Amino acid sequence: MSGLGARPISISRVARVIATKDLRIELRSRVVTNQVFPFAGLVMVMFAFALDNDAVLSRVAGGLVWLATLFSLIILVQRSFAVDSADGALEAQRVAGLDPAGIFIGKAIAVMAQLVVLEMLLLLAAVVLYRVELHISGVVLLVTCVICATAGLAFVGTLYGGLTAGARGRETLLPLLMLPVVAPVLIGATRATESAFTSGGAAVSDGWPWVGVLAVFAVVFAIGGILSFGSLIEE
Amino acid sequence: MTSASSTTTQTFTAKVATPTTRLVGAMAIVSMAWVVLGGLFVTPSDVNQGDAVRIMYVHVPTAWVAYLAFIVTAIASACWLLSRKHAMGFDRVAGASAEVGVIFMAMTLLSGGLWGRITWGTYWAWDPRLTTTAFLLVTYIGYLAVRGLGGSLEQRARRSAVIALLAVLEIPLVHFSVLMWRSLHQRASVLSGDGDIKMDGSMLTTLLVGVIGFTCTFAWLVMHRSRVLAMQDAVQSSQLDAALQDRASESAGLK
Amino acid sequence: MDHLGFIAAVYLTTFGVIIVLVAKTVKQGRDLASKVADKDKPWT
Question: Is A213 on the interface with B (CB under 8 A)?
Fold first, then answer.
């Protein structure tokens, strides 16, 4: 706890302020909309070039959507902390006595919001480019899957992004640390999305156990991040 | 330039080895020699696997040490975080153990791949155990990279302890999701039969000696490497002290 | 002995790597022990 005399600000308030700040920066700078979203779309097109087969593409569409999401997650997280560490804002927030758990949740929510928009675009791209079919019964599964997977990705991304922010060599270290951890999300979200698309003869009901895995993952790393984020960003 | 030598005379004679490490080292050498002789020449070949079973005497103890190393790293990290004084000894044991563990994990995957090529006809299978092992390797390569990030000793210890404990959260989730991934897709895993090795007395003994010998080797390596790490930290901080002293004397000379 | 190449490869790499690791550790320890004062050696 900070030794400041002022009344401590509640975690939820800190989270709200940080999330609003991050999202406002992204809305004004347009880096995410003008650079990250086009990059993700480009990845989807590149996958089509590499696989070069309509049947294969519609079969593996779910996995490609989530791979493109992971690549974009790396950029989004680096961007989210580059904005802060450029002006020493993260240290300033710590010195100001903001609860690190609140900073963690706030930054994760901002990343989550950007990821959800990105995933919607990628799923739309999969329907258009890879010719997958989405029935009404799959939509509920898909939406739940996107929410749970995005929460897990955002928590892990923020956690490891905070660690590598301000350290030398962070650009190369972030994917090395983060990607192994989010592997369960890639597996789970891919299976659930394939079920929602009913690709490869999967039934929609097959996807729900995977959504459970995604939810457990998100909860575990939310708690882990709340407990440890302060130690990781402390200088 | 007068180096500010302290009034107490410093000695530099103490060696890294102590009676304990010498004893552990001797035990390691004896049992490793036993494993090589027993594994290659004394033990019979297996009914099903033939001579390929001889790889087991090396592979199984290596895998055991690799997993032991990561358990030690996790426990030492937790001890560092929980200990009131944040004793650096815990941090160095965690680091030394991870260094040794990464190398043994790589050797496990290598010898396992070669063994698999003989017995199953493939170097790699998407088996949960194999996949989790590979993820452990990558995770702890990342852990060592985090240790190398620089900063103060306290900062290094704090960061790396948190990373080690996050790995304890990560690995079961990876294992479980790969387990579920495979079980939903194709069942019959190459490892499901678990080798079908019929062990006689000499085979069991050799395997047991192997586990003991590799564990002694691990203990020796961790003790020595954590002492090396302690001396590296001391050199680093003394260089820092010297640099600070130079700056201080410089500015004193300017006055 | 069948699969002699594979078995030899496993034994040679495993014990080779261990020997290299031990040798490296011993050398590092010797070099540093002559440079570092005994008061900085926590095990003494």
Answer: yes
